[in-house]
Amino acid sequence: MNYIKHLLLLVFLFNPVFSFSNTLQKTDPYTAGMDLYVAGNINGALQVWASAYKSTTSEQQIDPRIGTAFVQAVSEYKLVHLYPIATNIFYWSLKSRGTGEYEEYLRREIQKSASVFDRSRFKDVDKTAKKDPYKAAGIVLSHWKSLDPTPETPENERLIEHGERIAYIKKHFTENDNTVFDTDERSWTYLRYGAPDLLHKGTLEFNEHNMKSMANEAMTQVPALDRIDKVDSLISNTMIFYKEPKYELWLYKNLTKAGYVIKMFGESYHKRTFGEIESLTDFVPKSAFMKSRSSHYNLVWGPKVEAGTGRGEPNSTIAKKKHLSPGTLLLLSYTRQLMVYHTTFESLFLNLKKSFGMNGPNVSPSWISSQKSVLSMQRERVLQTAPDQRSLHLNELRPLEVNSHQYLFYNEHNQPYYLSVMNSYPQAELLYLISKNEVEDVNRYRLNHNLSVTSYGGEEVPSVSHAPTIPFENDGILHPAQSIFKIPVPESNLSLTYSAQVYDQEASGMRKGRVLPASLKASGMATSEESQKPESPSAFALSDILIGYQTDSLQWEEDIPFLVSLDGNIPDSTNLFMHFQVINLQPNESNISQMKVEFYVKERGGFLKKLFGKKDQNRISVTLEDYSDQIEETLEVELADREPGKYELVIEATDLGSGNSISKIIPFSIVEP
Question: What b-and-e string marks burial along 252-265, b requiring 16 or more CB atoms within 10 Å of the CB?
Fold first, then answer.
C-alpha cells in the first residue's frame, strides 16, 4: 500500500499538468496553497499541499488544515485520479500532534464530521475534543476508515462523497451561516443522507376562500348577519399573523421500513431565521391562538340525556361555548396545502377540523403543544430505525447480508480480547451476477471481509481483512461465508464495523458516474457496539462459548475447526461442535493444570433428551490438562437419534487443582434443510 501511495504521489508531483510558479513562498504551505486556490490555480494549490505532505517528517509538524483543504478541492472538482492521494493526506492530517497551535481548528473540523457518527456516540467524541482535540482526531480517523466501502483500495469513497456534499452545501444552502460550515441547517441532513428522495418547496398559503367556508361551517348555528361579522373579523385577525412563510419539505422514503423520514425547513415565526422546523406551529405565533383574537360561538346539541338512563328531556338541550382562533385557521390552511405530500399533515388537518364540533377541543397553545409532542414522538420513532448516515454511491450495488458477534476470550496474561465472528451470505448475489453476465467461471468473483474498529478512547485498533471461501454446495441449507478476527480490547467503548464486498476481478476502471471501482458488485455492512470494558478475572473463569457444525462442503479456521453458528441453528445432518477456554487453573505439584468438563444436551424446558443412542451417554465427561493455567479446547457433541427442535447444551467445568466449578447453558436448535 505504501508503494502505491508514493508512486501516485510522485506521478502527481512531477506531472507537468500540475506545474506552477516556483516563487519562494514566504507563508506556510497551507496559506500559500489557499492563496493559489482562491486565485483559481487549483492544481498549483494541490501541488503545494502534496509537497508539504511528502516533506513532513514528524506528527508534531503536521498541519491538519492541509488534509481537509486537499479533500475539499479534489472532491469539488471531481479529480478522480487524485482520490487515493486525497484519502492518504486526510488520514495523515488527523495524525497531527501539534503543541496547541491547531487545537481550535481541530475542534471545529471534528464538528464537521458529526453527520457521519451516531448522534449519541458523537457526544463522546465532542467531549473528548474539548479536552484533547488531537486524541479526538484519532477517533475521527478510525471512524472514517470504518466507513470505507472498499477497504482494499487506497481511496475512501465515502470520504470523497462527504467532500462532494460539503462543496454542495456551501454553494446552495446559504440562507444563513449558523452551522460550522457557515451554511444553514439543511446542511446537516444533506451531509447525513444526501439529497432527499422527494423535495417540495414553496410558500405556505393562506387560502382565504377555503378558510371562510370552514369558519362558516363551524359557526353554522350563529345567525347569518352575526356570522358574517364574526367570520370577517376572524379573517382580518388571521391576516395579521400571516407572513407568507417559505418552506422546504424533504422526504426520504428508502432509509427505513418504519416510514418516510420527514424533514421540514423554513423561516420560523419565532426565531425569524431559516432553519429546521419541528412542527407547522413554528410558522404560527402562540398569540394567534389567544381567545381575545378568536371568534366565539355556541353549539347547541340535544335533547339532553339523563346519565345512565338513556332517557331524554324533550325540551332540554346541551350548549357548549367554542372559539375559533386565527392560529387554527392558519394551521388548517397550511396542513390542507401539505397533506397531499404526507399523511402526517392530513392527520393534523383532520384533528383541527374535529375542534369545530361539539366534542372537539378548543384549539389552544396547550392543545397545540400536545399535538406537537405526538408528532415529534412519531418522527423520532422513525428516525430511531434510520441509519446513522447513508452513502448514495452504494445504491447501485447488490446488497449483502452480514451478521456478526463478539466472543470474549483471554490471552496468556489473562487480558481480554474478542474473537469477532463475521458471516455473510453472498450466494444469491453471485448467482444473479453469473446469470446476468452469462459467465461460467465463478472464480472471477472474490469475496472480501473487513473489520474496522473505532475506539472512543483514542487507542488505534488496526483494521483486518480476510478473503473467505464462498460455500456454493449448501447440503440443503444456506451456509455462510465466515471470517474470525482477533481484536484486542482497549480501555474505552468500541464501535465495530463489519463489511463485505464482492469483486468481479475481470472488471476494471470506475463505475459510470460514481467514485466506486467497476469491479465492486455487491456490498454489505453490520455494526456492533461494546460499551463495557471486561475485566481480567483473577479467579477460575470460563470464556464465552462458540458453537457450530462441520459439513464436507465447508472450510474453516484451523484454530476453530467448524463453522460458528451465530443464530444457534445446527443442521440435523451434523454434530454440534463447541470451542471454549478456561483460565486461572491451579497447577498441581508437577506444574500441570487439570480440568474435568462434563456436558449434556436437554430439550429446552428442562427434560433430558436421549441424543447419544444410549441412556448412560446423556452426560459425557472428559479430562483435559496442560502445562499452563489456561486450557482452550474444541469438543464435538454427537447428536445421534436427533430430532429437529429446541435444545440446551449444558457445560460444567471443574478445576481439579482447586475444586472450583463453573457452568454455562447454551441454547441451540436442530433444524431441517
Answer: beebbeebbbbbbb
Per-residue pLDDT at 16 = 46
Calpha distance 618→206 (Å, rounded): 79
Q: 539: Cβ–Cβ under 8 A, 6 or more apart, which residues?
A: 584, 660
Q: Which amino acid is at 496?
A: L
Q: Is the dihedral of CA 292, 293, 295, 300 positive or negative?
A: negative
Provide the Cα torsion 442, 443, 447, 448; round to 10°: -170
Is-contact 72 79, C-beta < 8 A?
no
HEC string of 69-138 equals HHHHHHHHCCCHHHHHHHHHHHHHHCCCCCCCCCHHHHHHHHHCCHHHCCHHHHHHHHHHHHHCHHHHHH
Q: Considering the entire predicted model, what is its pTM?
A: 0.87
Contacts of 135 (CB under 8 A, 6+ apart): 128, 458
* Backbone CA torsion sign across 602, 606, 609, 614: positive
Residue 373 C-alpha from the chain's centroid: 25
Note whether 377 and 389 are within 8 A (CB).
no
Q: Can you say how many angstroms the Cα of residue 48 is from the centroid of all Cα atoms in its chain? A: 36
pLDDT band (50, 70, 90) for residue 609? very low
Residue 191 main-chain phi, psi, to 5 deg: -65, -35
Strands 398-399 and 520-530: parallel
User: How far is residue 537's CA from residue 527's CA, in Å, rounded to a whole number?
Assistant: 27
pLDDT of residue 379: 82
Q: Tell me the pLDDT tens digit for each residue of 60-99.
A: 999 999 999 999 999 999 999 999 999 999 999 999 987 7
Is 63 within 8 Å of 96 (Cβ atoms)? yes
In the predicted structure, residue 259 carries a pLDDT above the cut 60: yes
pLDDT above 50 for 615: no
DSSP 8-state secondary structure symbol assigned to residue 450: E
The whole-angstrom separation of Cα 395 and Cα 400 is 12
- The enclosing H or E element of 184 equals none
- Give SS3 for 541: strand
C-beta of residue 421 within 8 angstroms of C-beta of residue 566? yes
Q: What is the dihedral of CA 507, 510, 514, 519, to 10 degrees?
A: 30
Burial class (CB in 10 A: 0-12, 13-18, 19+), 26: exposed
Report d(CA 488, CA 460) in Å as an integer. 10
Cα–Cα distance, 415 to 231 (Å, whole number): 78
Span between the terminal Cα atoms of the chain, in Å = 44
Alpha carbon 358 to its chain's center: 47
Distance from C-alpha of 628 to C-alpha of 644, rounded to nearest angstrom: 40
C-alpha cell at 586: 491451579
Among candidates 263, 265, 268, which has minimal Cα distance to 284?
A: 268
